[in-house]
């Protein structure tokens, strides 16, 4: 089913900042090839502490084994689940016909957001919350989140290089963004669910700028760590469509030893006018019942005040048609969180005129006044009211 996966390029993160220009150029070319066709790259010398990641997974599994009541205390529908615990079957992929994913998650942000942004976007710039008696969980998770953010920033320098932009252009655009790290536990399938259409993660593209995936751990039905129980389980991506494969081609991700993965999100596709492609990907569950998996994803976001529109060098009639109109990242995030089922539909109301109730109240009061006065003042409502827009 898949083309040979070693075609997906590997980049050494150090090469992107090498003093030797030919080394830098070769690394940038790998980024260009990887993100232009697959939307995914393998990263060597990433700087993420994998021992710490393993310690974190132990702490995370301790948390997920807590009672439903305990975990519910960490659930935050009021901030659209952007921090703390997301129960299973909450989030759904946009194109999946509404089938929720079989996973539970815990979200944090690597750095405390600025007060101004917390006020403007209370959900996507919320402060972290932590479970009780979970020091190891909090300490290791925060550290990993920051390391993953740094991988993203370093790789973004390579992306700018690959696209002929100023080296700091992307790095500056994500500074202060509503970045989130998500720890996930994919729920085991039972006998009846195995071999059905149920997936651990339905096909979707990530909506952020760049996603960093440091790797996960499979667990057997007794909860013990195990190797991959089914060679076909795990992540598949769909390549950019071309003449040979008009719908793209499904490729199974097989991360080389010692590497981690980075993926292009929709925000990066939009600002590059489609030069980089946000890759559709899907997570296949093993075909054996009872197996679960823990994993982590770090989502680097553009700053909420950035504009989402092809940058000048990538602006063509076609890209403007495909990615217009220009949008503000914060409002784009709001809409997408509604689409994937985390934010309520009413959140849309904040994007339009919001003072209908005020006008209505004034008009009702005036109507009451007129009735009291026996309807003598004919035009009062018109004059006191505000324009409807
Ligand atoms: Fe994803």
UniProtKB/TrEMBL annotation:
InterPro entries: DIOX_N (IPR026992), IPNS-like_sf (IPR027443). Residues 362-381 have a biased composition (Basic and acidic residues). Residues 362-389 are annotated as: Disordered. Residues 8-133 form the Non-haem dioxygenase N-terminal domain. SUPFAM superfamilies: Clavaminate synthase-like. This is Isopenicillin N synthase family oxygenase. It comes from Persicimonas caeni. The lineage of its organism: Bacteria, Deltaproteobacteria, Bradymonadales, Bradymonadaceae, Persicimonas.
